[in-house]
Amino acid sequence: MTETDDYEHYEAVVVGAGPGGAAAAAVLAQQGVETLVLERGVDAGSKNVSGGLLFAEESAPYTLDDLFPDFREEATERPVTESYMHNVAGDQVHTIDLEDVHEAGVEYCDSVLRRKMDSWLADQVHELARETGGGLLTEVRANGLLRENGEIVGVTCDELDPIRADVVIAADGVNSELARDAGMMNWDEPDDYFQGVKAVVDMPEGAIEERFDVDDGEGASHLFAGDLFDGVRGGGFLYTNDDTLSIGTVFHLDSIADERAEPQQLLDGLLTHPLLAQWLGDDYEELEYSAKLVPDSKKVAHPSPHQGRLLLVGDAAGQMQAQGPIIKGMNHAVSAGALAAEAFVDSRTRGTSSAGDLYEQKLRSEGVMDDLRPARYRASRAVTESDAVSGFTDALVDSFVGRAGVSLLGGTVESLFNSQFLLGMIPDTKTSYVTIPQVLGEELGEPIEGGPSQVEPPDLADRIGDLTYNTDVGNPHIEVLDESYDASGTAVTACPVSAEDFGGGCYRSETVERDGTEERVVSLDTQPCVECGTCAVVADTDWEHPRGGKGVEYEQG
Amino acid sequence: MHCVTLTKGVPDFREGQVSFDEDGHLERGDTPTVMNPNDEPALRAALQTKIRNGGTTSVMSMGPPGYGDVLREAMESVYADDLYLLSDREMAAADTWATAITVATGLKRLEPDLVFAGFKTADGETGHTGPQTAWCLDWPLVTHVVALDVDADEGVLRAKRLVEGDVDEIETVEAPLPAFVVADPEFDPSYRKAAHRLKHKDLREETRARAQNHEDHLTVWDHEDLNLDPDFIGLDGSPTIVEGVDPIPRAPAERDATMVDPSDEDAMGDVVEELTQYAGGD
Ligand SMILES: Cc1cc2nc3c(=O)[nH]c(=O)nc-3n(C[C@H](O)[C@H](O)[C@H](O)COP(=O)(O)OP(=O)(O)OC[C@H]3O[C@@H](n4cnc5c(N)ncnc54)[C@H](O)[C@@H]3O)c2cc1C
Ligand code: SF4
């Protein structure tokens, strides 16, 4: 560390200690770059949620176990060796073995829980970075970019004086405040995002092996689509951890908003579905409820994710790939983080191109960009996602002709779903998420065995009550700018810890009298907020993350 | 910069730990000894100085040989480099005056730049020992400190101190080093540099290992080591005479409470009526 005009200087500042930040910092530190990592959580991972499948792709330029020896032994849950897709229609289900697509080009796929994984990574990163004179600090929130003569020269923080850096790697996740400060991400369009909601469920010893028919040290993935989500576009997942299950839903945020869907109810719909009874058993014990937005790379992966000294990686750059029902964000964040670090090191030694330009080149030459914004999707989207066309295909699949077609396909359905090519092309319409799975379930499905579900998920008040918060009393991190129901009312339903007719959540709607007329408005209490980012997009707010160490603290993640 | 923090073992007054006999007297034998909780702000202030200004930090205490755990606890919270225990029979049963003389003598040996003390002990509650020690040393004394900045180059400290306990009146004072600082419970350490926080992390790791074998870092001095005359320390050197100790009786409740059901409109009306007579502000 050197000091100029009282500001500290580090060669590299990495904001965020998720997989993207950890990978970037590891590569920087291994190359001897003095690296400071800033993480706002009390512990890395305490703010983070993922469904939990970490893919190590053969084509990936970097994977976490390349960068961190012992990663898989120390930080992941189970290698997931089996994968199924369940298309549900009423009391029928048609199950497809996704083995081919799950394994295609994949070296391994492990289930992970983020608190354990990220905090382990952070310890390794701190040790590596300390050698360079830097290190990793938790409970520090970067709140913006430090500029000089209009150029980005570092970061500003709530807890620290401004810090200068030769490169700033923003790995601060989906609601990146640094990307927003740079004007590189706007948080306006719900259809740029998915919303993920998850429950981590306790499993008695031996239950996973028995109920999922897997060996000790092996795991399974089950995906769900069809008519179990009231027509909201999206699907469900269930992954096995060491001794817990991660069960969740991922929906298009625009669909959640338009349908006025209650995310926790959609999750409950999955948890209490008779199909899941075989795995959940009679004693349902939920350890943690969590939620977070996920960007849709097909729409928002930044084609040129850098500006001056600022390089965006991972979710902050929109690099989150939803390949149909299979979600790949962590692996791309790792690749991008490491490539950004590599680019900075290269630009320093060569001195010809900027780190940003080199980073952009590397994203392309390493094929990361192709995964994130497949040309096939871009070409087909224009046609398939327009309302007229999707309405037509929806009706067609659902029609007698379409149904006959689906039935005739029979076993071929499986190979279609197992096609990487096709998955990349899947349009984000109701047809692909709801109608096709539902028709498959109806036409080819078999009755779901077993009785009704005994699962009784906790209500929202209990879910909030079970979470740990360090509330920043008197210092709310979100402010509603327009409290009219028209502008911000969607948050009452779309917020995963709020609901209409529930007074204990973040958003509430109420009718007030103003100047003799009745008005419907929303009010906000950020105390139960899980910082998912939804209301930054669906409501008119001034949205920030809480200060370092404040807010929700996930134990599982 | 060499800082010394003074600390003391006190009975653990927390619910479930402390025990009293029938007459309300403390049962010393059944009550564990812990580090005086009011010393924590002093430890925080010393740690801040060590981290921001570098140098070493020692912890000093006067007490029986069994204070090892208290000193270990202090070592962990201030990431102390070494520990000093002033201990022998002649020092026992000292009042604050005799304690101050003993501790000041020990401090002179170490020649520190700064000494930190808590604002009072949880048992005696006099708040005298710190100031009396400063007086013995003839050093500037800064009390009720809530924020501290040490300027080693200029050889001064600048402190923000509470002027009156519960009023938000704060004054900034400057004092030459060496100086004696009594930290207020409101003391808030400030680490606005990443480098300071990184060092904090390093020290935490280092100290954790050191505190495991804290005896290796402990120096015990008796009155002979300090060249102190037994007549002036311990019980013999204590001018304070404790005439007796009276347990404070629980204050009897003077008023009767009347329970009111909030859905009972009549009863609520009575409450409002009852309160309106005070509403005028008199
Ligand atoms: C329900 C759900 C299911 C998912 N399933 C999968 C899956 O199965 N497989 C998969 O690969 N991906 C999945 N994802 C996506 C995946 O979680 C993300 O793509 C991935 O975490 C992105 O990594 P990142 O490093 O870019 O950001 P993050 O992991 O979000 O990390 C960002 C870090 O930055 C910190 N931070 C944020 N702002 C600041 C600030 N201002 N100052 C300091 N620190 C800050 C945060 O605390 C956090 O630690 C899922 C996501 C969700 C929500
Ligand atoms: S208040 Fe906003 S950010 Fe917080 S949980 Fe609700 S929707 Fe998410």
Compact overview of the structure:
Chain A is an alpha+beta fold.
- In the CATH hierarchy, the third-tier topology of chain B is known as Rossmann fold
Q: Percent of residues of chain B in helical segments?
A: 25-40%
Assigned CATH superfamily of the largest domain in chain A: FAD/NAD(P)-binding domain
Distance between the termini of chain A: 33 Å
* Domain module count of chain A: 3
Oligomer: heterodimer
Protein name (chain A): FAD-binding protein
Domain FAD-binding (chain A): 10-343
GO molecular function, one term (chain A): FAD binding
Organism (chain A): Halobacterium bonnevillei
Describe this structure in words.
Chain B: Pfam families: ETF (PF01012). The complex is a heterodimer of chains A (557) and B (282). Chain A is α+β, with helices and mostly antiparallel strands and 557 residues long. Chain A has three domains: 3-77 and 112-185 and 302-372, FAD/NAD(P)-binding domain, CATH 3.50.50.60; 79-107 and 188-294 and 380-423 and 425-457, D-Amino Acid Oxidase, Chain A, domain 2; 474-553, Alpha-Beta Plaits (2-Layer Sandwich). In chain A, strand 19 (321-323) and strand 20 (326-328) form a beta hairpin. Chain A is globular and about 70 Å long. Chain A starts with a strand and ends with a strand. Chain B is α/β, with parallel strands linked by helices. Chain B has a single domain, classed as Rossmann fold. Chain B is 29% helix and 22% strand. Chain B is built from six helices and eleven strands. In chain B, the strands form two sheets. Chain B has a nine-stranded mixed β-sheet with strand order 9-8-7-10-6-1-4-5-11. In chain B, strands 2-3 form a two-stranded antiparallel ribbon. In chain B, a hairpin with a 4-residue loop joins strand 7 (141-151) and strand 8 (156-162). In chain B, helix 2 (68-78) runs antiparallel to helix 5 (194-212) and helix 3 (96-110) packs across helix 4. Chain B is globular and about 75 Å long. The mean pLDDT of chain B is 87. At the A-B interface, loops of A face helix 5 of B. Iron/sulfur cluster binds next to helix 24 of chain A.
